[in-house]
Automatic annotation (TrEMBL):
FAD-binding PCMH-type domain boundaries: 71-245
Annotated GO MF terms: FAD binding; oxidoreductase activity
UniProt source species: Linum trigynum
Pfam family, one: BBE
Entry superkingdom: Eukaryota
Listed cofactors: FAD
Family (UniProt): Belongs to the oxygen-dependent FAD-linked oxidoreductase family.
PANTHER family: OS08G0158400 PROTEIN (PTHR32448)
Protein keywords: Disulfide bond, FAD, Flavoprotein, Glycoprotein, Signal
GO BP field: cannabinoid biosynthetic process
SUPFAM superfamilies: FAD-binding/transporter-associated domain-like
Protein's recorded name: FAD-binding PCMH-type domain-containing protein
Keyword Transmembrane helix among record annotations: no
Length: 533
């Protein structure tokens, strides 16, 4: 081994500089990286397993502890680019030395695809490319792809009280993956998805060329706004339009147990939630709690709402259209939009806005498995009772279902506008979740089996042929690419049409045009038509 490389690995500091190395592909890869023209301009920082910081750099952005085990395959190198030229160098060296690439933004992928692969691989971790520039006058923002949505919210909220952006609930989610798969939050009925408001992007393609919207062309620009991450190139920045909101908005959370008629109220919610005025979003979170009377387990529905208006107009609206919920004046909290972000993220609403910048989640990380469904017709109370029976199973640590209403703006945007297709006709989306802390195979199997059984149970009550799913709630159970080599269009369509419906074929055409050898790939990336390995 080259003396300088050996010395630097022994000293175990993030290494930059030039060195030669022996035959193994990954050492050649490191050598390539460190001798690339980009490395002459500024250091390319990377971490190999010999570096004491490697475990913490790897684990910092792993959000599903199911993939943070000693058995999970580990990257040979983690590259943390500081500039676009470092990304170009990593792509070029990956080609030369056939080392598989996984891009990581915020690391929230439900199946760990940004940091786990079954073949030797390296991670291109964009954590250092995380600046956000808000232009209040132009109502736009440029967001580097390694930023979190919390950083975006922070930058908006510290500069204006009347502009907002419709992205997700948890501030630690990365814009890299989130916008690549659509991205929604509590203003979805008013504004649609995060990806609906992307107006430009910077992307490094398979040849290492840097593009903006004009140079990548409208097909590729269409595909990256919802067609899934790690498929068409490495996005380095997004430009988005910001949206106007009132100085004050209103939030509330009202909970009902089974004994308090949760089932009947959810039933009513199914009839009205997607028909409310666009300004009103009420989701329902189903989980388990204890009764106050005799501390036995019961089912609980939390009606959790954002209204883009004030109390004085919300209260009569709820009393007229949803009296069953029994919302009262004292349930309603008026605050600025940015403070509503704190509320839904679980922070006290008077917290300093800086908490939104933290990449450490508020609640502890756990193992989890999730699935998604789309509902077009209300399910019966009997079907809902079957959900409660499953939630009440005492051997399941923390089950949760989230029903998010659609309608409003979501129904107006055409299905083919961006690759995300779930628009008119959708009443609500279900996210099925199960969390657990107990380690080991048995606990994992028990919880994964539970969610699969629940999913089977719900089949008659949700979309069919295909049974639709949300790509950002990644679920490898719905199908995956052929790990052994070429994946045919027929094989990939199995999962592809569930995520993208009729947009899947256009995604394949774009992929075939921009990355025919399938360089950017993972278990659920759209494959090209051609048979390259
Ligand atoms: P990660 O880094 O794991 O990337 C996800 C995928 O995108 C991977 O395939 C990765 O390779 C690829 N990718 C990342 N950056 C890229 C880039 N720059 N260029 C190309 N490809 C790139 N969703 C939602 O819509 N609303 C919500 O409220 C929430 N809330 C939520 C909370 C929590 C706790 C979790 C764990 C997840 C969510 N999500 C969500 C789901 C979330 O939108 C989804 O997991 C995103 O893909 C996460 O993006 P990250 O960049 O964080 O993940």
């Amino acid at each position: 081994m080259n003396f300088l490389l050996a010395l630097l690995l022994m000293l175990a500091v993030p290494w930059s500089g030039s060195a030669a190395s022996p035959a193994a592909n990954h050492e050649n890869f490191l050598h390539c990286l460190s001798t690339s023209p980009a490395a002459n301009v500024s250091k390319i920082v990377f971490y190999t397993p010999a570096n004491p910081s490697y475990p913490s750099v790897l684990q910092f952005s792993i959000h599903n502890l199911r993939f943070n085990t000693s058995a999970a395959p580990k990257p040979i190198v983690i590259v943390t680019p500081q500039t676009t030229s470092h990304i170009q160098a990593a792509i070029s060296c990956s080609h030369k030395h056939r080392l598989h690439l996984r891009v990581r933004g915020g690391g929230h992928d439900y199946e760990g695809l940004s940091y786990v692969a079954s073949r030797p691989f390296f991670i291109l971790d964009l954590i250092n490319l995380s600046s956000v520039k808000v232009d209040v006058a132009a109502r736009t923002a440029w967001i580097q792809a390694g930023a979190t949505i919390g950083e975006l919210y922070y930058q908006i909220g510290t500069q204006t009280t009347t502009l907002a952006f419709p992205a997700g609930v948890c501030p630690t989610v990365g814009v890299g993956g989130h916008f690549s798969g659509g991205g929604y939050g509590l203003s979805l009925r008013k504004f649609g998805l995060a990806a609906d408001h992307i107006v430009d992007a910077h992307l490094v393609d398979v040849k290492g060329k840097v593009h903006n919207r004009a140079s990548m062309g409208e097909d590729l620009f269409w595909a990256i706004r919802g067609g899934g991450g790690n498929t068409f190139g490495v996005v380095t920045a997004w430009k988005v339009n910001l949206l106007p909101v009132p100085e004050n908005v209103t939030v509330f959370t009202v909970t009902k147990t089974i004994q308090q008629n949760a089932t009947g109220i959810i039933n009513r919610w199914q009839q009205v939630a997607d028909r409310f005025p666009d300004d009103l979003f009420i989701r329902v979170i189903l989980d388990r709690t204890e009764t106050t009377t005799n501390s036995t387990a019961t089912g609980r529905a939390s009606f959790n709402s954002l209204y883009l208006g004030q109390v004085q107009s919300l209260l009569p609206l709820l009393q007229r259209d949803f009296p069953e919920l029994g919302v009262e004046r004292e349930d309603l909290i008026e605050l600025t939009w940015i403070r509503s972000i704190l509320y839904f993220a679980g922070y006290p609403t008077d917290s300093p806005l800086e908490v939104l910048r933290s990449r450490v989640p508020l609640t502890r990380k756990r193992n989890f498995k999730a699935k998604s469904d789309y509902v077009t017709e209300p399910m019966s109370e009997r079907a809902l009772e079957g959900i409660w029976r499953r939630i009440l199973r005492p051997d399941i640590e923390d089950p949760e279902l989230i029903f998010s209403p659609y309608g409003g703006r979501m129904s107006e945007i055409p299905e083919s506008s961006i690759p995300f297709p779930h628009r008119a006709g959708t009443r609500y989306k279900i996210q099925h979740l199960v969390y657990w802390e107990r380690e080991g195979r048995e606990a994992t199997d028990r919880h994964v089996d539970w969610i699969r059984e629940l999913y089977g149970y719900l089949a008659p009550h949700v979309s069919k042929n295909p049974r639709l799913a949300y790509v950002n709630y990644r679920d490898l159970d719905v199908g995956s690419n052929n790990g052994a080599g070429f994946t045919s269009n027929e094989e990939a369509r199995v999962w592809g049409v569930k995520y993208f419906k009729g947009n899947y074929e256009r995604l394949v055409r774009v992929k075939t045009a921009v990355d025919p050898r399938n360089f950017f790939r993972n278990e659920q990336s759209v494959p090209p038509l051609t048979a390259w390995k």
